[in-house]
Amino acid sequence: MKTARIHGLAQAAAALSLALGLMPAGAATVNNTYIQNSATEIRGQLGGYARPTVYVNQRACGEPSPSAFACGPYTISVGTSFLQGQENSYGNYVAKFIIAHEWGHSIQFTRGINKRAPMQELQADCVGGTFAKYAQTTLRYPSFIESAVRSARAAADYSTHGTPSQRDYYSRYGYANGLNACLTRI
User: Taking the model in full, what pTM does it have?
Assistant: First the structure.
């Protein structure tokens, strides 16, 4: 209940900021098509490691409200409102980074990787960073690592997800060093 209220307040703040012109201009519209297209792009890089289905607005993992969650090697659950709020607050393509982060968890499930907190989340940040680089160099997106890092830093919690500086470091580490480094050195 508290999480839903906080999420609702965050959405209201994002809407007000957008109305006041304080948000990035031209944020992409995050809907089922955008999310499924993003999953197809991510699968192009990470599909050899895990092939989850991305469920939209279905609470497929039993989560209390649709946000972004991986609950096994085959299931990622995301909510359009949550991802739209991230895009509005931090910039275009942040939703892709978040889905790639969750894909990183699916890779962990597939490979039996179970690290202590916060390293499990930081390794997923690293995977997200590899996708940001792939999107830029292979898919020809403009760089969105700065926006992705701002989003990751904002979601830091000092315990399960790590500190802002840790989330920053591991996202950039993946961007700079690639997937193999994320999976073998973290």
Answer: 0.87
